[in-house]
Design brief:
By secondary structure, the chain is of the alpha+beta class. It has 28 helices and 14 strands. Among the domains are: 258 residues, Serine Threonine Protein Phosphatase 5, Tetratricopeptide repeat; 116 residues, no CATH class. The radius of gyration is 29 Å and the shape is globular.
């Protein structure tokens, strides 16, 4: 509709202010790439306050490369910064630091209004590190300014997802993060609102109203998160006017007219035009359903029944679970559970110096390491950890602390190894066997291991809790860690009383869960980046309040982990990031994949099937259950004999490139395909190509020749 003196369609496409509204945010987030970012030991439980002082710049071997990055980081002049970024990318095109350098280049290009270059640089940065809302938000604004609406929507949705999923970057002061996060979310909602408004005004009928309502919802969210944003208020006014809600439109224009900037006079003109039409201008109404804090459903504290209570009705599943690695993850010492060779074994340094001794005497097993005075100090094995590929051992001290020995036994290679030395960054204190007698925090089981290896871990209270105060209801991963507290269910079933339950109510029926909620349950233990802290009542790996039995842990930004967790092409190198890898896959982001599509947590053949695969003998079925059309293509698609390993879907799309101590596991970034550009740039070691995993004697040129014929 058009009315005299009133803008609608043309004004919605107003874009001169799009980047101006981003300038303050861009200035702030452009200086947050602190080179001294701390990195966390891999395979450790991460806590918000447990960020260890290890800078990833220490992992850069080249002094020149390190100095070039520091010059770039410290430079504040925009044009000079852009020049330094270009020089770095020319001179160090195989650097670990490419993601942040491309990010700096993208943001300086935005500041210089060189939008094509900004999008080009941002594309490269996000290819290496997709989970970066501090870049995605300005990129979304550039994309909408350039009329790249579909790309803008994807960037804004991804940014909102990551802003909810990840916690505060260590480079941002704690007091500033809530405000910055809200501003970034507001900007993302603004982009989504603008695109929906443009879509709505381009059509007629019911679809027009649907899209305009969608635009209004996003713009209300933007206003609620950033009340001072005159752009959002002005655009919301236009949308409300297009919907025929003239009083609401007038209120939004009035709000926008009070803010200085390029839209102030336009807003005044809109208000005056509405007044001439007899519309009463009032204060802006409150955001519908957003301004007030949502009240969380109150539920009584969770009641747990224990795994044994499940056996009566679910005997088959319970018996199968007892033979899985989850049930045997952590067990009190029993001689028959010890898998390592303790027959007068000795672990030595590369020069032959004895560092640890393992002994079995009668019914007991012991470790010995050097004490404070240099003599041998003995510790009994009180717990075993693991039962499939590797086994670790722990001892309990008199004050209740449990400490894990650095030396572990690898069942595949039949050898002892210093596990933490394999996975920790250089300088990690807990890798020093001569320091084990200190029983420091790094070797403490309750802090580092128990959240994923034991069930219902918590302290009597939150305040003043010490490591030894953390106790668990059950060793290993029990039924209720996945299905939730089930005492009420057990009681109801005992008297034959049916229960009305939502899909997320315990005990959870995984067949009814949304795929994201399904994966979130598995992610409790299989997501390395989750930052854990005690709940209000001392809960650590479960929740007694809220709408779920699982705490909603924020994830630690990936830039704060040691570079050894990643390949140079950005893919995850360590199996501890298995869920993070899955979350990058299109099968998860655009599809409905869950862990249960491929795995059975209590398979009938757990001993012979240690990875709990549903289709152990027919692995292609894991993919064909969703991609059935590929079944008929066969050799035409795989270009290898049908019965060969190379024709299995997972050989190309889930290559074995993730470290799992002494063997390689499959990446769970499921849509991985054997592209060559990253391997050409970084080499097979830092960007493994699945073709060259089998054809080890060949090179990139050979692969390129063959792929051209596909």
């Amino acid at each position: 509709m058009r009315n005299e003196g009133f803008e609608t369609e043309g004004a919605v496409m107003y874009r001169n202010g799009d980047m101006n509204r981003m300038r303050p945010l861009l200035i702030l987030i452009s200086v947050l790439l602190v080179p001294g970012v701390r990195a966390q030991d891999i395979d450790n439980v991460v806590s918000p306050n447990g960020r260890k002082p290890f800078t990833f710049l220490d992992e850069i071997d080249s002094d020149g490369e390190r100095a070039a990055f520091l010059r770039l980081y410290h430079e504040r002049d925009t044009a000079r910064r852009r020049s330094l970024a270009d020089a770095f990318l020319r001179n160090y095109d195989q650097s670990w630091l490419l993601a942040p350098v491309y990010e700096i280049a993208a943001k300086t290009a935005i500041d210089l209004d060189d939008f094509p270059a900004a999008l080009r640089f941002a594309r490269e940065s996000l290819r290496l590190l997709p989970e970066n809302p501090l870049l995605l938000v300005p990129v979304a604004n550039v994309q909408v300014q350039q009329n790249l609406f579909r790309e803008a929507v994807k960037s804004a949705i991804d940014a909102l997802d990551y802003l909810d999923r990840f916690g505060r970057p260590v480079a941002i002061p704690e007091r500033e993060w809530p405000g910055l996060r809200d501003a970034l979310k507001a900007s993302s909602h603004y982009v989504l609102g603008k695109v929906a408004a443009a879509d709505g005004l381009a059509v007629t009928g019911a679809l027009r109203k649907t899209k305009l309502d969608e635009a209004a919802a996003h713009l209300w969210s933007a206003r609620d998160l950033n009340p001072g944003d005159s752009e959002a208020a002005y655009l919301l006014g236009l949308v409300q006017a297009a919907l025929g809600n003239t009083r609401e439109a007038a209120a939004q224009f009035e709000a926008a007219s009070r803010r200085p900037g390029p839209l102030r006079q336009k807003s005044i003109d809109q208000v005056n035009a509405l007044k001439r039409r007899g519309v009463t201008v009032t204060e802006p109404p409150p955001t519908p359903g957003v301004g007030a804090a949502t009240k969380m459903a109150v539920r009584r504290p969770a009641r747990y029944a224990g795994s044994a209570s499940c056996r009566r009705c679910h005997a088959v599943q319970h018996t199968a679970w007892e033979h899985t690695g989850m049930a045997r993850m952590f067990r009190p010492y029993r001689p028959e559970n010890v898998m390592g060779n303790f027959d007068r074994q000795q672990f030595e340094s590369p020069t032959g110096v004895p560092l640890a001794r393992m002994k079995a005497e009668g019914e007991r097993h012991f470790f010995e390491t050097r004490g404070a005075e240099g003599g041998w100090q003995r510790y009994p094995v009180d717990y075993t950890i693991g039962s499939k590929w590797q086994q670790a051992y722990a001892t309990r001290t008199a004050d209740g602390q449990i400490h894990v020995f650095p030396i572990q036994y690898n069942l595949l290679e039949k050898t002892w190894l210093n596990y933490w030395k394999l996975i920790d960054p250089p300088g990690s204190e807990r890798t020093n066997l001569d320091g084990f007698h200190n029983l420091a925090q790094g070797t403490n089981y309750q802090i580092n291991c128990a959240p994923c290896h034991t069930s219902q871990l918590g302290a009597p209270r939150r305040e003043g809790a010490r490591p030894q105060d953390l106790n668990f209801r059950e060793a290993g991963v029990n039924c209720e860690m996945c299905h939730g507290p089930s005492a009420d269910h057990v009681a109801a079933m005992a008297i034959g009383k049916s229960q009305e339950r939502r899909p997320t109510d315990p005990p959870v029926d995984f067949r009814k869960l949304d795929h994201r909620e399904y994966v979130r349950i598995c992610a409790q233990c299989h997501m390395q980046s989750a930052m854990r802290e005690l709940g209000s009542a001392g809960e650590y790996n479960y929740s007694n309040s809220g709408d779920s039995f699982m705490p909603r842990y924020p994830s630690r930004p990936f830039v704060e982990f040691s570079r050894r967790a990643f390949y140079k092409d950005g893919r995850f190198r360590e199996t501890t990031f298995i869920v993070e890898a899955l979350m990058r896959a299109s099968c998860y982001r655009r599809g409905q994949i869950t862990c249960g599509n491929c795995h059975d947590p209590h398979p009938p053949d757990a001993t012979a099937n240690p990875v709990s695969l549903k289709y152990l003998e027919r692995p292609d079925q894991m993919c064909l259950q969703c991609h059935a059309n590929y079944a008929a293509l066969g050799v035409a698609h795989t270009h290898h004999p049908a019965t060969s390993e190379a024709s299995r879907c997972v050989s190309c799309h889930m290559p074995r490139i993730m470290n799992s101590v002494l063997f390689k596991a499959r990446t769970h970034q499921v849509d991985d395909i054997p592209k060559l550009d990253m391997t050409e740039r970084f080499g097979q070691q830092d960007s493994p190509n699945s073709c060259l995993l089998c054809h080890r004697e060949k090179d990139v040129a050979w692969v390129a020749t063959h792929l051209r014929g596909w």
